[in-house]
Design brief:
The structure is a homodimer.
Chain A (H helix, E strand, L loop, with lengths): L8 H16 L6 H12 L6 H10 L7 H13 L3 E4 L8 E4 L7 E5 L5 E4 L2 H13 L3 E12 L1 H11 L1
Parallel strand pairs in A: 3-5
Antiparallel strand pairs in A: 1-2, 3-4
Helix pairs in contact in A: 1-2, 2-3, 3-4
Chain A binds a DNA duplex through α2 and α4.
DNA sequence: ATGCCTGCAAAAGATTTGCATTTCA
DNA sequence: TGAAATGCAAATCTTTTGCAGGCAT
């Protein structure tokens, strides 16, 4: 389900942050970029650049060109609206909303693609500690657990086991 | 430093495993594929397909073609000789030796690229536990911590702070 | 001999860039 | 008005695929 270009208080706060960054960088506040931002904020789940462009075209923005979306991605990331989602070999880069959400990592079913978001404070602390042990100051991390979800395990067990 | 096409007992065991898989699949045991495997096994750190092809060409295999390397990657993975390394957005896919090494995750310096391999049993257990909580049977994971290493932090602190 | 393997070139897919035009401040 | 933003097409880059000839069984 794609929330598309719906609004919410959080979205407005996110857009303010984008506008702020735009001002700070002495860029211009374009309509198209705002539409892209709204669309990204409203997208449920992970999206590719093409996904965004497609939804925007469907939603009335006739010529939402992928190149334009590509060009706005770095800014949206810098403003903290979106973040890259972990991608395996050969997979197209996907992004997800970052603003207004608690930090989380992913659990993906390798059979059906089911995506679960989890958050473990213990895990976060442990990571910080590991980084510290090596003298690193942690900035970010890429973390995705891959396996089979319960339904797929069951299906598999029924046919193969 | 690239160990290139050096040998070791472990490498021989790895190659046996590759030959075994080749036999099982009723493929043929080609010279070129073995060279590629040796080169991958001997490569220190992470490598792209191009990296392998380049080293092979330099090492005497005149026409080690990237396409050929690409074609052998899945087999090397299936045989457990190599595994994909986590890649961020826009980064070319890299691989690393998997055979004969303990499992480990990565700590990368975002300034200088320094790569540290770490292993934390606690972390592994925690991941298993998280997966179990969601009914998942864990198969693999992608885990990379990103930050600034001590030297870069120091350099940064000196100039900017 | 048969069929996999290889090199090469062309294709495909994702992302970037150059350029003319439009939009914003 | 001048700089930034946009759409479009072309260029890049990485990875895949089709084909003709080479190599292993």
């Amino acid at each position: 389900m794609v929330r598309a270009e719906q609004n919410s208080d959080d979205d407005e706060r996110a857009l303010s942050r984008l506008r702020e960054l735009v001002r700070k960088k002495e860029l211009k506040n374009s309509q198209v970029r705002e539409r892209i931002a709204r669309c990204a904020l409203g997208y449920e789940g992970h999206f590719t650049v093409e996904d965004l462009a497609r939804v925007l075209r469907a939603g009335g923005l006739r010529n939402a060109h992928p190149a334009t979306v590509y060009r706005s991605i770095p800014l949206l990331m810098e403003a903290g609206l979106i973040q890259p989602a972990p991608a395996g070999p050969g997979e197209t880069q996907r992004y997800e909303r970052a603003f207004g959400r608690d930090h989380h990592d992913h659990l993906v079913c390798t059979r059906c693609g089911q995506l679960v978001e989890f958050h473990s404070p213990t895990l976060e602390l442990l990571q910080e500690e590991i980084a510290k042990n090596y003298g690193f100051c942690l900035e970010s991390h890429l973390h995705e657990l891959r396996g089979t979800c319960s339904s797929c395990s069951r299906a598999d067990g029924a046919s193969a086991g």
